Amino acid sequence: MNFRRQFVTLFPAKFFATLLTALVSLALLSDPAIGQQTLGSLNGTVTDVSGAVVQKAAVKIRNLDTNLVVTAESKNDGSFSAADLPIGTYEVTFAKNGFKTAVYNQILVQGNRTATVNAKLQPGAVASEVTVTATPLLNATDTTTGYVLDSSVIENSPLGTGSFTQLAILSPGVNADLLNTAGTNAGFGNQSIWANGQRDTSNSFSFNGVNANNVFNGKSSSQLTSGRVAVNVGQGNNSQTGEIQTSTSVYGAIGQALPTPPPEAIEELHVNSAMYDASQGANSGAHIEVITKSGTNSLHGGAWEYYQTGGWNADPWFIKNAG
Fold it and tell me: Over the stretch 225-261, which tens digit does the pLDDT of each residue have?
């Protein structure tokens, strides 16, 4: 009885309430803040032809697809910045009294990346306009090791199962399992990915800024397969035809794997293998971000069909050899 009274005295209910609040706050703060990865940023410096900085120049940033307009002004050192821009192609206009208006009409803003536009204003009337169509390719802001693929590259890349995971090997230090072995890329046609010597369970995945890590095994693939013929080299688990079977794409697969959007629905694919910021540092491998396409002000759409059959395959070598 005395021990119980002393315990209550030493640890009152207020103490437990404070401890519970601290634990909940810690859990919430420890979750990676990856929602901002679907947005990009833009910065740069405004100078004249002599290299002197131009202060208080008006900067107008317009999304060519949605007509979203964001304005900024160059600071005393000539620099400007605009954060939280939806991904897409922008037109950036610089205007200042005594200078010709400079227009950069092909500025690509990518998710979780900062595009840099350094404008040089020429003396002249504001009504005069100088248009620059080149797109700056150098990322002069962050040191992340990785790459960003846009929709045109994704759609035109040959993907054996239609899974975005097959594009991860384009990043330095990243490799994936092969498509030409039985039982590979199990579940949704995804491949297992290894980055910088880490395990295939050490990567992190997100879709449109939402954490999508596999809660079953931490992988991009699973142990469950749905067989289909992908290649035909005369060996494997089909005794009649000798065809190697791999798993199918998202349209027919089963298993505890990551969802795989059709390549036509993906706007950008990010694979960051090293030197990423704290928002992506929860895992020691690669961080892979998929951003799907969004709407524009113009009506557009597409239709496609996937059809694969063993009837289109060449005869296996072993069948030919047997006559």
Answer: 444 333 333 334 444 444 444 444 443 344 456 777 8
Q: Where are the beta strands (DSSP E) in 16-173?
A: 39-48, 58-63, 69-73, 79-86, 88-95, 101-109, 114-116, 119-121, 129-132, 145-150
Sign, CA torsion 34/36/37/41: negative
Across the range 80-100, mean pLDDT stands at: 92
> At residue 232, what is the residue type?
N
* Banded model confidence at residue 147, pLDDT cuts 50, 70, 90: confident
Q: Which of 169, 115, 148, 152 is nearest to 290 (CA)?
A: 148
Lookup: tokens for 190: 């995804």
Cβ 168 vs Cβ 288: under 8 Å? yes
Per residue in 180-197, pLDDT (tens digit) is 444 444 445 677 888 888
CA dihedral 281, 282, 284, 286 (to 10 degrees): -70
Kindly list the structural domains of the chain, giving each domain's residue range(s) and its CATH number in brackets, ordered by start: 35-132 (2.60.40.10), 145-295 (2.170.130.10)
Least confident of 74-78, 199-203, 253-257, 296-300: 253-257
What's the rounded Cα separation, in Å, for the pair 231 and 228?
9
Direct distance between the N- and C-terminal alpha carbons of the chain, in angstroms, rounded to an integer: 92
